[in-house]
Amino acid sequence: MSLPSERGAEVGRRIGVGLMYGLWKPRVLGAWRMPASGPAILAVNHSHNIDGPMVMGVSPRPTHFLIKKEAFVGPLGTFLTGIGQLKVDRASADRTAITDALGVLSDGGVLGIFPEGTRGEGDFASLRAGLAYFAVRSGAPIVPVAVLGSSGRPGRLIKGLPPMRSRVDVVFGDPFEAGDGSGRRTRAALDEATERIQKQLTSHLENARRLTGR
Questions:
Q1: pTM for the complete prediction?
Q2: Are 98 and 89 in contact (CB under 8 A)?
Q3: Per-residue pLDDT tens for 103-141?
Q4: Which residues form the Phospholipid/glycerol acyltransferase domain (predicted)?
């Protein structure tokens, strides 16, 4: 199996950090909480299109995000593949995406996931089971990440984007284990893991909002 390019993801990180700091004013809090090595899963709330590029740019380590296949069109698709991002079909059990994602983790890399499955309120109110599956199957710790201030407000230059040069906060939380230590991968175990994850992510988001005043 050909793993997504780690070098490509590092190039993506450098492009992302230049772009994000050029267009907005990211304020990154708690990045030191990210494990310095070994597998990790970034669980990111998702309220806007810039959330992925923002986290990709400010993360201390190269990150391979699972991105909907609809984004992989033409030159953009070639670019996303080149910077180590993973294409996923959200309408089915995408075995290729699952294999690629587990490959990233087994190789000690960082996997980025929007656990809500799609862009929404960004409040972790509804989680899909994919995050629990990857965490339990790989044993990788989950690092909650809250992106605040990315949703569009008055004064924006492009519809739906934050106003240029406005502040966007990215808050990293403490890593945690999703499983109960038993190694079970049954549907019941994944449901229990999803509940644990939701509590942790919601708590982190509340703390991040208090911390940033968002």
A1: 0.89
A2: no
A3: 999 999 999 998 876 555 555 655 667 889 899 989 999
A4: 40-150
